[in-house]
Amino acid sequence: MNGKKGSIVIKIDDRPETGKKDSGDVGESPAKKWIRDVWQFAKEDMNRITFSLKVGLAVLLVSLLILIRAPYEVFGTSIIWSILTVAIMFEYTVGATFNRGFNRALGSLLAGIFAITMMQVAMACGQIAEPYIIALSIFFVGAITSFMKLYPSLVPYEYGFRVILFTYCLIIISGYRMGNPIRTAMDRMYSIAIGGIVTVLVNSLVFPIWAGEQLHLELVGSFNAVADSLEECVKKYLADDGSSHPEFSKTVMDDFADEPAFHKCRATLNSSAKFEAVANSAKWEPPHGRFRHFFYPWSEYVKVGAVLRHCAYEVMALHGCLHSEIQAPYNLRCAFQPEILDATNQAAELLRSLGKDINNMKRSLQTNLLKRVHSSTERLQRSIDMHSYLLTSSHEIQDCPPKLPISQPSNTVTCTSKDSLSQVEKSESNNEKPNSADTKPVQGDSYHETMRKQQRRLYSWPSREVDDYEDGDVDTEMLQKMRTFESTAALSLATFTSLLIEFVARLDHLVDATDLLAKMAKFKEDY
Amino acid sequence: MNGKKGSIVIKIDDRPETGKKDSGDVGESPAKKWIRDVWQFAKEDMNRITFSLKVGLAVLLVSLLILIRAPYEVFGTSIIWSILTVAIMFEYTVGATFNRGFNRALGSLLAGIFAITMMQVAMACGQIAEPYIIALSIFFVGAITSFMKLYPSLVPYEYGFRVILFTYCLIIISGYRMGNPIRTAMDRMYSIAIGGIVTVLVNSLVFPIWAGEQLHLELVGSFNAVADSLEECVKKYLADDGSSHPEFSKTVMDDFADEPAFHKCRATLNSSAKFEAVANSAKWEPPHGRFRHFFYPWSEYVKVGAVLRHCAYEVMALHGCLHSEIQAPYNLRCAFQPEILDATNQAAELLRSLGKDINNMKRSLQTNLLKRVHSSTERLQRSIDMHSYLLTSSHEIQDCPPKLPISQPSNTVTCTSKDSLSQVEKSESNNEKPNSADTKPVQGDSYHETMRKQQRRLYSWPSREVDDYEDGDVDTEMLQKMRTFESTAALSLATFTSLLIEFVARLDHLVDATDLLAKMAKFKEDY
């Protein structure tokens, strides 16, 4: 077993999920570093300390029932069961503790009733049959509870089934050996109840950690995570000049170490189970803090989370584009930079504003922001539309080189800094005269010749001069292949922007879902 | 509490995750339906029955130690602890049980040692100080174990910390009240050990359910899920003629009820935690069944799973395109149907073949399939490249209507049924003569006129005739907006194909990862 234990230990060392920020200091002793890591971890969320001290307090209170003579004489040794109950029932949030307590209580109750009934049946059957009946009943209780806890809709009550199993066994067996099963069962129930009550009281009265509050903050955090990740991804895409493209598999294994926001976004994507669990706990909590009315719509939080995740999938796709094998040329990306950046920033701002509104429990319509997002996206669409020849390039340009009157429709685009695009236009209008002679379709060799020439001009643009290549003798077949690849590469920019636009389109639904939540949770209106 | 309990019950009824197939019979009594659902659930995976019966057997065996007089007289009442141990330790797979047993054993041992030490210290401090020292130690053990189990790298050992807490409390308190803590601790250890041994023996000798086997099958299943989902998504995309486009939010809430493969694919995406948990369990298992050598590379399974998930994100993006707000016209999608379908089928076949090889523990290079995938993708790329004017449409066509010699480069594309594309070509070559007059750039109104005309022809193509629209008086501003939208819509096809191509590009890495797994797991070679 030693070897196996070793491999587990290595795995722990592999993932210092906290304390990443501390990598600055190197010449530090491991013990010191470890203490600082733990301290950092505790500081991140002071609730962790609160929780730990509360558990300590709860077990201490129960232990006092034994350590002090008076209660010990009342309850007897069976009081140790209350310690077990505290250790098993104490959960992080109030709701989860209530939920677990409910499982424990119902499980114990069912097991108790069933055990006593069974005991009477066994005793009625006579002394010889008794142990056989008990053994058989234990076997069936074990098999049935184990089967039921596998059933998908009963999985959340897994703990309850375990409780039924061992409580049943304990009661029926102690009853058989010690006589008076009802007394045994009652004693056990008392001590379990004491443990449960101590747990619930300490958990909900001493600095309570509410699942509802956690869910609320989690949702707000998700909005910010998606917004951050979107901005990070787009910024990286526009900055990526193709010079430093590491191996894909390495990036996957490194898990995109240089993209912290991406990690948060992916965590949001994987948080659906957590969301549902916390919402499930929150439903058990009484009105508290900011959430002051009964039947608070916790399930709406889950729904908003689902729509947000649907938006986040689009961010994952954008991230996929960023790390795609086939990349649009850097210059092409630069050409659309202002519009892409503008749309991204507006979308991120809308997301953050939605998150902020939920956080402040305010209900506002976001009309202005939504309008701005839409108009900036429309600008991006129009810009892509205007300059779509840059994206597909190959065939049309064979016949008609880009001497089209771009400047004329261009004035409908109301962007601020369009230096890159105008540069393209200029560089292309320079070549206008010599190429305009080739405008008519030419068949055969000379046609291909023209095509190739323009092809090269387009893709080496704007850093190189056309004439540099004029003398070279390039293989047509090879060129054909390259061209196909390059065309796909240029289309990858179209993909990126399409995904961005789709992301914005989904924001509408997010606004709707958020508004529904605000309405149902009766957030204060703020128009 | 009743109201809350009710809401939980409703939630259970909401999700009949099993038994979906049985919706055919309506006039059935609920009890009968329920029994059939349960039967269906058991039949899906007979291991569930096996597991349940094994748990029954294990608790029965431990109970016999008390029910039969001879062992009961040896062990005494503390034997009931072994029942608790079985109920808590018995897990679904052998590896998970070993892992849990290790947690339990180490936790109990640490708690025992610490409790005995503490007991000696307390006794040495005199009778008055003793209870205070014990109480303080309980408080600190409770607080420290609770804090440590929150620490991310220690979360898998959460159960171990709970065991430490309650074992410590039980030993030190019973020791205080009953005297002779070492005797108490030893008795407890014996019975826990007996429970643990019974659990481990029953779990690993009677029809063992191996985590390794589960992981193996899970990975193979994931390959098939991604392949199915890819095919389903592409098929749906090509078949979707825009006639029945339900509300997006409704689709999200319905959770895409008509796409079973999509659900499986998303489950694969969310399975990273499960994969790691099962791999973690598998590491605890001795060589067994098909996995006959020591240090079997279970972690490689997790890595292949990660790369596969990276491919699956692309499928999610494709699925996003399918349910996108902005859709490419149906006819345009039809135009590229043969190439898209071909690439999809090849990719799905490669995925399935990889899955099958893993399943059969064979190592083959997949060169042929990979080559075919590549060439079919290349054909798709080339076809998109050839007909990219269809995708961006607006500006180039203003100057040069599609009278380009498509048929000439088209012979490099070796597709079987290109009826749709050739139809486009024909319908466009019909208009060749009248349009070729407008080839030169025309400024002002007449330029816009031409543009508009061609615009409409392109987007109403091929179902309507150009001349139908000639007389209508359409607002230019409106047309401009529509055009932008339509151009983006057409680009959405480019997005779809780009994502598909990117998916194929990632398959290379999947092949590499799978090959590495095959090498490390020493699959038999099969070239």
From TrEMBL, chains A, B:
Biased composition (Polar residues): 407-424
Isomerase as UniProt keyword: no
Transmembrane feature ranges: 49-67, 74-93, 105-125, 132-153, 159-178, 190-211
One GO location term (cellular component): membrane
UniProt xrefs under Pfam families: ALMT (PF11744)
Membrane topology recorded in Swiss-Prot or TrEMBL: Multi-pass membrane protein
Renumbered residue ranges of the record's region Disordered: 400-456
InterPro entries, per database record: ALMT (IPR020966)
Key words, A-Z: Ion channel, Ion transport, Membrane, Transmembrane, Transmembrane helix, Transport
Subcellular location: Membrane
Alphabetical GO biological process terms: malate transport; monoatomic ion transmembrane transport
Ubl conjugation in keyword set: no
Family statement drawn from the similarity comment of this UniProt entry: Belongs to the aromatic acid exporter (TC 2.A.85) family.
Protein name: Aluminum-activated malate transporter
Lineage: Eukaryota, Viridiplantae, Streptophyta, Embryophyta, Tracheophyta
